[in-house]
């Protein structure tokens, strides 16, 4: 398999548009990439009628995505006997999570997809956790005494936000059930919402995103690569401290 294209800078995400490239069809391959969490993963699947066959998944060690991600994708494709051009689509988990991890993952997705004309869909890691557990609301540890939170109510579109103890206390009524996959998020929610049921789950992996991405790609929807952006929910330290440094002194 030849070298992959170089990575490209990021842009904005959310609006999905009809893909100008081919739509996903029976027997086509899907690649999923998730570098948002403490560990990452890449997974390969194949459409088989109404089923999705998982052909393989590779876990990536945290803090090494920039040096291991492309090689892991290459090894995964090689082990399945396919090449990059055989892919019918790429599913990118675009956050929330580590700033560096999210950037590396999205840059790789853009580099892989652009040259080969592969359709891409972007999915929130919170949505993946929610769908994995079947629980509408979900939370992930955001460090600093905060969580990344997905809230879904009857008749309302889901919303995702960064929340600490103060923001959690202001949410009324709190959800009855929340999916979590780490102890820090569970502890914060248990303190803020003692009446809520916390549904513990293993962390979401790349293979968990394939079914969600498949449905969107089959429908012919994809993000414009020029507008594909990270779903951070939190500004970077450089932005926050840069503003503070530039603020006029009283």
Written overview of the protein:
This protein is α/β, with parallel strands linked by helices. The chain has two domains: about 15-125 and about 205-235, 2-Layer Sandwich (Nucleotidyltransferase, domain 5), CATH 3.30.420; about 125-200, Nucleotidyltransferase, domain 5 (2-Layer Sandwich). The protein is built from seven helices and twelve strands. The protein has helices at about 65-80, 100-115, 125-135, 165-170, 185-190, 205-220, 235-245, and strands spanning about 15-20, 30-35, 40-50, 50-60, 85-95, 120-125, 140-145, 145-150, 160-165, 175-180, 195-200, 220-225. The strands form three sheets. A five-stranded mixed sheet has the order 4-3-2-5-6, sandwiched between helices. β3 and β4 (about 50-60) form a beta hairpin. α1 (about 65-80) packs across α2 (about 100-115). The longest helix is centred in the middle third of the chain and has 18 residues, at about 100-115. The model is unreliable at about 1-20 and about 235-245 (pLDDT under 50).
SSE topology:
Elements: E1 16-18, E2 29-34, E3 40-48, E4 51-60, H1 65-79, E5 87-93, H2 99-116, E6 120-123, H3 125-133, E7 138-143, E8 146-151, E9 159-163, H4 165-169, E10 177-180, H5 183-192, E11 197-200, H6 206-218, E12 221-223, H7 237-246
Parallel strand pairs: 2-5, 5-6, 7-10, 10-11
Antiparallel strand pairs: 1-12, 2-3, 3-4, 7-8, 8-9
Helix pairs in contact: 1-2
